[in-house]
Amino acid sequence: MAEKIEVSEKKVNHFVSMFLSFLILVFLIGLWYLTTLQKVFDSAGLTEDQITVMEFNADIIPAEDGAYEYNPAKTNGVPGPIAVLKYSIEQFSHPFHKKGTNDHGIGHLVIYTTKRFFTGFLIASVVAIFVGVIIGLNTIIFQALNPFFQILKPISPLAWMPLLLYTVKDPQTTAVLVVFMAAIWPTMANTAFGVKSLKKEYLHIASILQLSWFTRLFKVVLPGAAPAIVAGLRISFGAALVAVVPAEMLLGELGVGYLTWIEWNNLDLSGVLFAIGVIGLVGWSLDLLFNRVANALTYSE
Amino acid sequence: MSYLELSKISKYYKNPEGRGEPLCVFKDINLKINESEFITVVGHSGCGKSTMLNIIAGLDEASTGGVILEGKEVNSPGLDRSVVFQNFALIPWMTVYQNIRLAVKAANPDWTKDQIKEYSYKYIDLVNLREAANKRPAALSGGMKQRVGLARAFCINPKVLLLDEPFAQIDALTRGVIQDELVEMWEDTKNTVFMVTHDVDEAILLSDRVVLMTNGPNARIGEIIEIGIPRPRERTTIIDHPQYYKIRNHIIHFLVERSKKMSGAANCDVEQASAEEGPLVVHFREEPPPDTDLKLRVVG
């Protein structure tokens, strides 16, 4: 009986938290709606001349019965939820269109960004794990390289951009390399730590069984360090995700990051808000994917 | 010439205070072990018995002296000496089968997949783990884990089997069952065994000779007990053997009193004289002479 009560209590908690989430969502959207409501034009207190100037500037347009209202095409401030929703539906209705060099559908943009992200992240992970294993196994190499890592690690990946752009002369590759620079350090540090703190017994077993270098690496060292490596990959993953957006913005490479900048240049804040939302969704789904892979790689003792 | 010989091995550690004389765990240990002999080392914590085992395994280095196996010095780990660890040391991301297979494959690199599989399952069956073959160590009890450890150690058919307090972390009831399994496997292969334990009953049940260490630091071999109780020995009947409690009491007396008295010396060098004489060998005969059940002889 006691167990049953506990189970039902847990379920209630789950619903309560979901309900709370929903309430918070409603509250935030309501707040957004209320703070972005367009003001109604009130001509009281304005002289005839002032109104003429405003009309001339197209700030206001004539409405029925000889009055004026604010020009909806020149809305002030941040657009409300309804405008952004309308814009999003419009964007998602033709996700794979291509009009000219800069106007690609949102589906294309998501694919560009995902590709760029994974290329940089995967290359960085391979390099980081490789170097991490070497410095984890060899204290002398670790101590020799450590000062360099300590200086290179705090440099923002974006700081490399001008140098990379000059040397590789290709913005597409540069964007990938910026992601690479963002993703390499956490995985490298964690791999080295994981290899270093591998239980001595596993290495003892490996040396008693006279395992070859290859078997030792792939059957003992890497799987043993896997939990630490995965933890490092997780941090790298987040860092790379953060880096890909400004890399696209600065380099003008098409993608969801660049979308925010295009829309800003278009002075279209609905577009900016839409792009921010898409970045969130892309990051979230990549993170879910990562967790799936990570769970398969860890073990319990 | 003996099969396995510990020749004047000593182990020193750096003085924990950083300066002063290095700390001597044991010094000039000489021990000759015959082929197919089951030898057990018993002593208090800190006498360096596990260190001795690790030196034989090649996992630790002796400060002086060396280990000779079949006339050749051994100083690195190898497939000819397998270890059963107190904390099992199974690879946690591999299943029972994969753990055994890793060892079988390593010992027989030119075998086919089927041969390796068949041989691995043979050893899994020997320790009655067929049903758990596809489980990972995390899902096993301590007893089951150590069965895997034993199977892994036996399946590479080593010249010397090194058991480092193999049953210390296993509950008393299971311990007996696994001891029987160990004996069963050992009767088949007759590997030379070097075991370290705290358990006096275990030592008497399994060993041909029991090596008693004096207390550390500066530990040395205090006495060597030859156990004459005939094999096969059964856990349930060995206690009825007329010699059993005499041997047991003798060892316990050693551990409680003499191991402390015989150590005493603060410096290794003082012990030199007696170390050269060799330890006292106590033989418990199967048929004791009427006047005494102890026959003492000192071997040089």
Question: What are the SSEs and their pairings?
Answer:
The complex is a heterodimer of chains A (301) and B (300).
Chain A: H1 2-35, H2 48-56, E1 60-62, E2 68-70, H3 81-93, E3 98-99, E4 103-104, H4 106-137, H5 139-152, H6 161-168, H7 171-196, H8 200-208, H9 213-251, H10 256-265, H11 269-297
Antiparallel strand pairs in A: 1-2, 3-4
Chain B: E1 4-13, E2 23-33, E3 38-42, H1 49-57, E4 64-69, E5 72-74, E6 81-84, H2 96-107, H3 113-126, H4 142-155, E7 160-164, H5 172-189, E8 192-197, H6 200-206, E9 209-213, E10 221-227, H7 244-263, H8 272-277, E11 280-284, E12 295-298
Parallel strand pairs in B: 3-8, 3-9, 6-7, 7-8, 10-11
Antiparallel strand pairs in B: 1-2, 1-4, 4-5, 9-10, 11-12
Helix pairs in contact in B: 2-3, 2-4, 3-4, 4-5
Q: What does this protein look like?
A:
The complex is a heterodimer of chains A (301) and B (300). Chain A is mostly helical and 301 residues long. Chain A is built from 11 helices and 4 strands, in the order H-H-E-E-H-E-E-H-H-H-H-H-H-H-H. In chain A, the strands form 2 sheets. Chain A has a two-stranded antiparallel sheet with strand order 1-2. In chain A, strands 3-4 form a two-stranded antiparallel ribbon. In chain A, helix 4 (106-137) runs parallel beside helix 7, helix 9 runs antiparallel to helix 11 (269-297) and helix 10 runs antiparallel to helix 11. The longest helix of chain A has 39 residues, at 213-251. The model of chain A has no long low-confidence stretch (mean pLDDT 86). With 300 residues, chain B is an alpha/beta fold. Chain B has a domain at 1-70 and 191-242 and 251-269: Rossmann fold (3-Layer(aba) Sandwich). In chain B, 33% of the residues lie in helices and 24% in strands. Chain B contains 8 helices and 12 strands. Chain B has an 8-stranded mixed sheet, sandwiched between helices. A 4-stranded antiparallel sheet of chain B has the order 2-1-4-5, with helices on one face. In chain B, helix 2 (96-107) crosses helix 3 (113-126), helix 2 packs parallel to helix 4 and helix 3 crosses helix 4 (142-155). Chain B is globular. The two termini of chain B are 15 Å apart. At the A-B interface, helix 8 and helix 9 of A face strand 6 and helix 2 of B.
